[in-house]
Specification:
disordered N terminus; Cytochrome Bc1 Complex, Chain D, domain 2; 9 strands; mainly alpha; globular; 463 residues; binds heme C; three-stranded antiparallel beta sheet; two-stranded antiparallel sheet; single chain; 39% helix
Length: 463
Amino acid sequence: MRKLRSLIPTMPLPAWVSTRAQTCARSATLAVALCCAGTALVHAQSGAPSANSADAAAAAAAAASANARPVASNAELLVRGEYLARAGDCIACHTVPSQKMFGGGRPMETPFGTLYTPNISSDKQYGIGAWSADAFYRMLHEGKSRDGTLLYPAMPFASYTKVTRADSDAIYAYLQSTPPVHQPNRPHTLRFPYNQRKLLLGWRALFFRAGEFKPDPKQSVEWNRGAYLVEGLGHCTMCHTEINALGGNTASKEFQGGLIPLQNWYAPSLTSNKEAGLGDWSIDDIVDLLHAGVSNRGAVYGPMAEVVYDSFQYLTEDDVRAVAVYLKSLPGHSSEVDTSPKSPFVTEEANRLAPLGKKIYDAQCAECHAAEGQGKLPNFPPLANNQSIQMNSAVNPIRMVLNGGYAPGTKKNPMPYGMPPFAQLLSDEEVAAVVTYIRTAWGNHGAPVSEKEVNALRSAPLF
Ligand code: HEC
Ligand code: HEC
Ligand code: HEC
């Protein structure tokens, strides 16, 4: 079998690492940026029975982090701070790839103009070298800069507000220990009236509640640790929750999946709904996906590949497992899957496109994804029963076929396999046909896609 990586002479980094540079993959729109508020509105809840309610209070106290224990030395504090900064993925937004760490300046495109992330290195003039630990905590906890300026929620403080004071202090100490980058901030170029920070008062009243994570004493230590990471530093809800018309996320739909506007990637449901979410996944599969980037259920791609590359691969297996345990406890909702009977038109479209789709699949795709879509595990992901390609929104599989991709190179999977782009090889109709085929074959329950949808995504930014 042809291994794609053999086509690449040297494989220092997966392809997507160098192509992601131009826009901040974390939240390409202000709407996305705004959406992180949902976390603050919803209280951690669980439909799952307590794993061990006996260890209640002690569990809860220990769970918020390993931070309950006293820090032995400054060196240990710095190591912990670095680890927590990884968990929060500060580097992804505050560093322009291949430039100085934490120097800021990474553009975040929004429909209202461009935000440039600030310098958060230890530089006293341009970074946060002159900030106190109190000011840093207030920034994470309340979303205010040192002088009290309200921050745009493109900085995910609506999630970071859950971070404990001890963890904030560790991140602060670590950032202060990084080399200063003597580089001024680039001013945002937001249009009027979005450049008026006082507008943020209204947004904050609607979508932001400051408050540290409160452990649930009825849940296990592991569950609480996972909840702390997912709802706080991980800021998963920023992408995995639908955005409402006001640019916040719909609290009642937390973790039920959402389209990332402008960037055009769909972040699927993380609840335990069996068809839309992770209900069918084992804990081990979730751990593999998040830690290695590949699993028996699928590989990460697009913005999620960046999350694994910059953040998850550095976490301990225990922490990744805690995240998985927490995700598995998120209750699923029947509303996550469209169960209404398919209109005759939809069935007709699927029937029209599927034969062409099957022909293309057999010729172009089966070599890697196998005849029945079962994949060749773990390097070539399965397409049968793979929920990330069956959502109402078909952007993910369309973009994968157009642009191809690489799973991220991680400690556990340093030589990822790739998929070639088909944008040049296949017409809009052919892409629509093959994507319709993989969304509807082998028991998959996705809807057909049109040539128009394919065409619109030909010009979408890569990352
Ligand atoms: C999704 C992108 C994103 C992530 C992730 C992110 N930031 Fe930010 N951060 C921003 C943006 C954008 C701003 C500027 C907001 C503004 O101007 O109102 C900002 C502002 C800040 C500021 C305020 C700087 C100043 O001069 O006022 C600090 C400090 C900061 N971030 C630290 C962090 C830390 C620490 C982490 C990780 C725990 C982090 N950021 C993660 C996007 C991000
Ligand atoms: C920048 C946006 C973004 C952030 C932040 C993000 N994700 Fe994702 N995630 C995505 C996208 C887009 C996908 C779909 C692509 C894929 O499956 O790799 C995805 C896929 C996933 C999947 C696979 C789901 C499936 O059904 O295949 C899991 C599990 C996941 N994310 C967990 C998380 C967790 C846990 C966090 C927080 C620590 C998180 N994500 C943060 C964008 C994001
Ligand atoms: C050379 C091997 C190869 C070929 C040929 C190939 N793929 Fe892939 N495909 C991969 C790999 C490797 C990944 C994981 C990439 C990543 O994580 O970015 C992948 C990922 C995908 C995904 C995302 C799956 C997930 O994990 O959720 C889809 C959808 C997909 N391929 C569809 C297709 C279709 C349709 C074709 C034919 C038109 C095709 N692939 C041809 C190797 C291949």
